[in-house]
Amino acid sequence: MKIFPRILLWLFALGIAAVSVLGLLDYAGLYRVRTLELNDQAAVVAVIAILFSLYFLFARTGQRPAREPETVTHRLENGDVKISYETIEQLVGRAASTIRGVQNQTTRVRTTENGLLKIMIRYSIEVDLDIPKTTADLQEAVKTYIVTTTGIKVDSVTVYVTELAVKPDVVQVTKRRVE
């Protein structure tokens, strides 16, 4: 919740609590308010209003605890190392950039029940390249790079070829006439 609505809610709860306390003091005969005449039902409502006001004044409404990023835990002799999925996705991107013809790659990382990595890669391949060979090279490069860099074993590297990409040097250049 943003700060302005929070301040308004706090002020409203404070006002309701103050009116309720005055009403209860009048009901008990400890403080006389000329305009108030409370009966038993109004006193119960005042107590409930005070409880709600206290809740809104002191509860941390709308705030969620910070969520820890998804990680893979690698156990070592001296303790654990947690590597975020985002970091592994970046490492996959570095490995994929070494393979000729791989462009526009996106990666998703998950873990199996055994703690092994499952990596899914979507990419565009340049025209006129051998798709099975390029895919096999990509899978091997990613698996080797991740294992050597992080020490975490990779269960599978699934590759999806999403489209054909045009080579940057094949882009047609339009010549302008000079008059």
TrEMBL record:
<protein>
    <submittedName>
        <fullName>Putative alkaline shock family protein YloU</fullName>
    </submittedName>
</protein>
<feature type="transmembrane region" description="Helical">
    <location>
        <begin position="42"/>
        <end position="59"/>
    </location>
</feature>
<keyword id="KW-0812">Transmembrane</keyword>
<feature type="transmembrane region" description="Helical">
    <location>
        <begin position="7"/>
        <end position="30"/>
    </location>
</feature>
<keyword id="KW-0472">Membrane</keyword>
<keyword id="KW-1133">Transmembrane helix</keyword>
